Amino acid sequence: MQLLCYELKVAGLTFNVFPKDIEALLEGDVLELTAEPNNPFDPNAVMVSKDGHKFGYVPKSHNLKVARFLEAGDKVIAKVVSKQANNFLLLISIYIDMPVTRLIQD
To answer: How far apart are CA 46 and CA 67, in angstroms?
Structure first.
């Protein structure tokens, strides 16, 4: 079962991408989330990428919980919700995929 955790704007897009990179994404595309515990700026940083291309980060206001799910080995899924390439805006949904039995136990 997939539980929607967050719908948020990816942070740091202007540092990592060009408008054409954002434009190439499609609504519903699955993105990779990678915890970066050795990130010198934030030990809870979670990078957002696709096919090895870095787009940005989960905002600091939400990254702690996402990082904990990733570090626990939970399946965390991010999908493109919408985008505005010229405004460097990328909105994503983050889901946690876990068995129903675990939901009942927790």
So the answer is: 6
User: 2-105 adopts what CATH topology?
Assistant: Alpha-Beta Plaits (3.30.70)
CA 94 to CA 67: how far, in whole Å?
12
Rounded Cα gap, residues 106 and 88, in angstroms: 38
What are the extents of the domains in the chain?
2-105
Q: Token match 């909105």: residue?
A: 91
pLDDT, tens digit, 9 for 90 and up, residues 76-101: 999 999 999 989 999 999 999 876 55
Region of 11 on the Ramachandran plot (φ > 0 left; ψ -120 to 50 alpha; else beta)? beta
